[in-house]
Design brief:
heterodimer; A: 111 residues; 12 strands; globular; B: 112 residues; mainly beta; four-stranded antiparallel beta sheet; 11 strands; 52% strand
């Protein structure tokens, strides 16, 4: 069955440090993959998406993600984290009928 | 501005009561979705609709019902059969099934 896994429930990063959030997927064919961000009590905002082509995808707010077929991964990265990046991050993949979401990673930013 | 609106922001349900959550989009999207979000569970699909007058059950449809009479509207009813309705409900839409989904701001449902 298709699945999306986010191994880290909670990550704390110092402001200005680099960030990598992990996402693994289980799909037969090339999946459509997404990263969304959610602030408390809000809806989800799309950060970036991968459909095909270049495996390094640029998104909004300085985020990028790299699709690695050999590792079944689509990790989200940012070179320098800002306090405003503290939120919950969801990786999602096309599940055939709708998106399949990982359970999310909560990012805390320390000063 | 194009987007998705959900109302109300907070909704309180009494025992045995049905309540309806509103979702409207002006993006001219064909597909619409309802998700339930519980802490630590991610988002789980309740119902989806790929076209007007058609909808399908998702992973956790029991105790919920929907309608899709208009392209722009996809209301969700939480029935009295849903024994644990307290959650954050998110509506989304996309141009088609494999296109990017855009989300509304959510409705938090609480039980009195």
């Amino acid at each position: 069955a298709q699945s999306v896994t986010q191994p880290d429930i909670h990550i704390t990063v110092s402001e200005g440090a680099s960030l990598e959030l992990r996402c693994n997927y289980s799909y037969g064919a090339t999946p459509y993959l997404f990263w969304y961000v959610q602030s408390p009590g809000q809806g989800l905002q799309l950060l970036l998406k991968y459909f095909s082509g270049d495996t390094l995808v640029q998104g909004i707010k300085g985020f990028e993600a790299e699709f690695k077929r050999s590792q079944s991964s689509f990790n989200l990265r940012k070179p320098s984290v800002h306090w405003s990046d503290a939120a919950e991050y969801f990786c999602a993949g096309d599940g055939g009928t709708a998106l399949i979401f990982g359970k999310g990673t909560t990012l805390s930013v320390s000063s | 501005d194009g987007g998705i609106t959900q109302s109300p922001k907070y909704l309180f349900r009494k025992e045995g009561q049905n309540v309806t959550l509103s979702c409207e989009q002006n993006l001219n999207h064909d597909a619409m979705y309802w998700y339930r979000q519980d802490p630590g569970q991610g988002l789980r699909l309740i119902y989806y609709s790929q076209i007007v007058n058609d909808f399908q059950k998702g992973d956790i449809a029991e105790g919920y019902s929907v309608s899709r009479e208009k392209k722009e509207s996809f209301p969700l009813t939480v029935t009295s059969a849903q024994k644990n309705p307290t959650a954050f409900y998110l509506c989304a839409s996309s141009a088609s099934r494999q296109e990017t989904q855009y989300f509304g701001p959510g409705t938090r449902l609480l039980v009195l």
